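G., the chain you wanted modeled:
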Amino acid sequence: MELTDAQIEKYERDGLLVVGGLFTGPEIALLRDEAAVVGTPQRKTPGANVYEKKSGKIRQAYASEQDSEAWNLAYRLPRILEPVQQFLGEQVYLWHSRIIFKLAHVGEQWQWHQDFTSWHMDGAARGGVHDMISVMVLLDDTTSENGPVRFVPGSHLEEGAQEGGVLDWHYDFETTAYPVHTTLDEHIERMSAKRPIVECTGPAGTVVFFTAKTVHSSTDNLSSRDRRIMYLVYNRLDNMPSTMETQRPDVVTPYYLNDNRVALEMSDEDAFAGLVEQRGLAARVSAAF
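Predicted structure as tokens:
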């Protein structure tokens, strides 16, 4: 999939771009089926999972591509990787992948933050619009009620005084099971006064591309519906850290950084479609409506 000039300009201006309908219902059903297995201690690499602080339910599952053929194909599909290469160039690798589970009634918040605050501490030198990119695939229909991701448009253009050019932050170990470099409230208030906060809602299969410095957050999921997302991060090869060491004071899983750091090649759309067909997911999704 090739993005238009207008889409690229919007991404560079807003720090995010929403594209609808990149995955079909049966394809999303395949990824959800795999997530249901990866998000348990029965996966091959259970140490890659992180659990909620209050409920003990699954919060994140890193490196899902290691345990799932479907997920290994999905992050390299042309519909994802081609736009990534438009932004970053052809020499890109997977920085990390994770499934973010925000389960009904128990899914906890993500505080306001810039991802690059952490990734700079992991060794990435640059976090500009053409250096690193996050891709978020909605695995569930997402509304204001089930804890959608929220963005501050244009926040990636704010040049912060902290190392890496990020905004002032506080390392929050207490609020959730996953420590977060939270952006200070004063910056959120100042930036959101310029441009309103945007909630990322939409049907399952919607894809969001956003920069490493775009400030974002999400609220608790107090609804009766899960809100899960496929979260993929790509980095330029020439922005690769020289070592796998990090300056973060606490790392909850050793799988948070991908150690297979080679330039990515496209996966086969037909192979992905074949998995959907083998499992009879088109018929199952059709029968559900």
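The longest strand covers residues 92-102.

Shout if anything looks off.
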